[in-house]
Amino acid sequence: MDIPISGIIIAVALLLVPILIIVRFKIPIAEQAMTAVVRVAIQLTLITAYIFYLYEWNSPWANLLWLVAMAAVTTYALTTRSGLRKMPMLIPVGVGVLVSALVVGLSVLWPVMHLSHPFETRFFLPVMAMLLAAMLSTNVAGLRAYYHTAHDQQEQYYYLLGNGASRTEALTPFIREAFVQTFKPQLATLSALGVVTLPLLLTALLLGGCSPLEAAKLVLAITCATLCASSLALLITLFVSNHFLIDKHNRLKNVF
Predict the structure, then answer these.
(1) Beta-bridge partners for 252
(2) How far apart are CA 137 and CA 199, in angstroms?
(3) Is 1 a residue whose pLDDT tops 70?
(4) Whose CB has fewer CB within 10 Å in the chain, the N or C terminal residue?
């Protein structure tokens, strides 16, 4: 379905309603609203441009390069929002994000969707984008909880080590807290799935030509994949980061 220029003009004209409300009632957000609209327009233009060329090329190597670039952006955002030092945390977070995106994403594209070409742009890009967005929205709380808990409760860690626990056993309480904080927003998202996310996804898929049954199956697959990718990314990050968080004498380092 291709929307004509006249349709775009009508859609943009719909913005006159909130603009008139802002002007009529003198709501003090006019500058913020204009800034947000301009920002969205610029972002949409740039995103449309590079996606257009990716679709034109339809190259597995170009798609992989795009994934690496988006994983780097997600990694930087995760470390920044978690309050962690960029170095050395970029490496473990980046490994967790990229590996989980590839493993879970290709699992969805190949054995789940039975695509003969899983790197085809029109399938590869949206699936990977949704997985990266899910990691960014949920794993910030988990990373922050793990490192803050490990920093604030070092006595418990050293006590467990002193009583014969292995490094993994001594870190288990911190890992548990990290996943508690990660699963909380995921459960909240699942609770609101039928009210917010599900109608949007179904609407997009139905408008894209899917039948109701096909749309429902895709939504189920994507939902399961995002939950798996977030959990796997955090697990990989925590275990890889232990090489940076703990020295050879099993002493905890400060990563804030």
Answers:
(1) 246
(2) 19
(3) no
(4) N
* Alpha carbon distance 39, 46 (integer Å): 11
Which positions ≥6 away from 27 have C-beta within 8 Å?
A: 21
Tell me the per-residue pLDDT of 191-212, one tens digit each, with 9 for 90 and over. Answer: 766 666 677 777 777 777 788 8
- The pair of structure tokens assigned to 7 is 């349709």
CA atoms within 13 A on the CB side of 113: 24
- Are the beta carbons of 256 and 155 closer than 8 angstroms? no
For the cut 90, the answer to whether the pLDDT of residue 95 exceeds it is yes
- Give pTM, 2 decimals: 0.84
Distance CA 199, CA 189 (A): 13
Other Cβ atoms less than 10 A from the Cβ of 253: the count is 12
The per-residue b/e assignment along 12-27, b for 16 or more CB within 10 angstroms, e otherwise, is eeeeeeeeeeeeeeee
